[in-house]
Amino acid sequence: MLGIFNVDYALNKAYEQNLDLVLISPTANPPVAKIMDYKKYRYDQIKKDKEERRKQAQASVQLRDIWLSATIDVGDLKTKAKKGREFIENGDKVRASIRMRGRQLAHPEAGFEVMNDFFDILSDIAEIESAPVQQGRSIYMVLAPISTKQKNKIIYYKENNYGKTKVTQCI
């Protein structure tokens, strides 16, 4: 029903239909009201809000941790990289960490080398968000899924006098 009606008339119409008169826009001139089942409307709103929160929670990116060692073997590194690949393919970020102990603190370059090897294994699907950094006894690096701009690049290797050179071409 459309039009301008008296408040008493609108309340009587809502009462006849066993519905509620709900004020939609009280600041408008004249105020806008709607006849509806308010309990059902409220239930549907709560249901929509819960669904939106659930979708937003699923879409959020998580930071996953993978712990490496400065003396990790190639097979173990590949196993850790396989788990990191799963995380990145799910859209999560991966923080690779190395805890340096004892004499390892005197040679942090071994830890950085492990970090670079870890990234080399995942370089086809990941990009470095924060480069390897030593903080106290630990070395950290964060990897993120490749952005859509990066995915559209073609990478090939060109032979020259100095050996193979990596060439990147955008599509």
Q: Which structural traits does this protein have?
A:
171 residues; alpha+beta; Ubiquitin-like (UB roll); Translation Initiation Factor IF3; 2 domains; 4-stranded mixed sheet; two-stranded antiparallel sheet; 5 helices; rod-shaped
Task: Explain this structure.
The chain has 171 residues and is of the alpha+beta class. It folds into 2 domains: 7-58, Ubiquitin-like (UB roll) (Roll); 63-170, Translation Initiation Factor IF3 (2-Layer Sandwich). It contains 5 helices and 8 strands, in the order αββαβαβαββαββ. The protein has helices at 7-16, 38-59, 74-89, 109-122, 148-151; strands at residues 20-25, 32-36, 63-68, 93-99, 126-135, 138-145, 153-160, 163-170. It has a 4-stranded mixed beta sheet, covered by helices on one side. A two-stranded antiparallel sheet has the order 1-2. β7 and β8 form a beta hairpin. It is rod-shaped, with a radius of gyration of 30 Å.
